[in-house]
Design brief:
33% helix, two-stranded antiparallel sheet, Alpha-Beta Plaits, two-stranded antiparallel ribbon, 3-methyladenine DNA Glycosylase II, Chain A, domain 3, alpha+beta, single chain, 3 domains, 10 helices, disordered C terminus
């Protein structure tokens, strides 16, 4: 009986010593957590899309609380969320970051894109890209139209319309998931305020482009000569807009012979009427 009592006492002493050591270690190595972090996390929309540049909403909340990110770091939440977080952090709400939206650099609809054959195979963009013929379109750099981008969108903001991906700018939050999913690298994230965009990414020379699609950029450079702000250049046979310089004057679009610089990229181009 004495042995049992001694064993229990020893175990109790060891338990107390371990408890004291754990308390000491916890105090010594504890990481201070700002209580505002949980409030900021609660204010964030919870999409965990990574559009802010941090690993999900938890990472964004931690960065905001530490002062490593602005209160308007979340592009999905926009101004309303930025105002809530600014109130939590006790700072004035600055202007929310310019909204960004996805833009598909292809206008090669079923009516405009030339075809070299009919694709029969796995109906995904990656699957079509992996086989000769690239989905049956003559343009090897255009939208394949099988919707891998659509499957990635959490906001129902992108759909396949007449053979190409089309973005609903009102629903798009600029998270960039569709851009990462596109094997053709056709989707860019651009400022929503931009009035004009080049709806083509074919880098072939003009003559070859016209043989592939009636909606391709010719790389002629007429747009660059119209711009007074050096906001548009032709690189590798394709026009590129510098959105930091663009003033949305529209002169480049007016002079584009291919009509590929589209206003607010909402217009659905129609095939040219055939001559009688």
């Amino acid at each position: 009986m004495t042995i049992v009592i001694i064993t229990i006492v020893l175990l109790a002493i060891v338990g107390i010593l371990i408890g004291i050591m754990l308390v000491f270690a916890g105090n010594k190595f504890k990481v201070e957590v700002d209580p505002r972090e949980a409030e900021v996390r609660e204010a964030l929309p919870g999409n965990n899309c990574g559009a802010c540049g941090y690993p999900g909403c938890d990472g964004c909340a931690a960065a905001i609380t530490k002062g490593e990110a602005p209160t308007n770091a979340c592009p999905v939440g926009g101004a309303p969320v930025a105002e809530k977080i600014s109130a939590i952090m006790g700072v004035e709400a600055g202007s929310a970051s310019d909204k960004k939206v996805a833009f598909v650099r292809c206008a090669g609809t079923c009516d405009l894109a030339k075809r070299t054959g009919n694709y029969v195979g796995i109906e995904t963009c990656s699957g079509a890209q992996a086989v000769p013929g690239n989905g049956g379109k003559a343009c090897q750099q255009g939208c394949l139209g099988f919707g891998e981008c659509v499957a990635q969108c959490d906001f129902d903001a992108i759909h396949i319309v007449n053979g190409i991906a089309v973005v609903d700018r009102e629903k798009c939050v600029g998270c960039g998931k569709c851009a990462k999913a596109c094997p053709q690298h056709l989707i860019e994230i651009i400022p929503d305020k931009s009035m004009y965009a080049v709806q083509c990414r074919n880098t072939e020379k003009g003559v070859l482009v016209k043989q592939m699609c009636d909606a391709g950029c010719l790389g002629c450079g007429l747009c660059t000569r119209q711009c007074h702000f050096e906001a548009i250049t032709v690189t590798n046979n394709i026009a590129q807009i510098d959105y930091d310089k663009c003033k949305s004057c529209g002169l480049c679009a007016q002079k584009c012979p291919a009509h590929i610089i589209t206003q607010r990229y909402e217009r659905v181009r129609k095939a040219p009427a055939k001559e009688a």
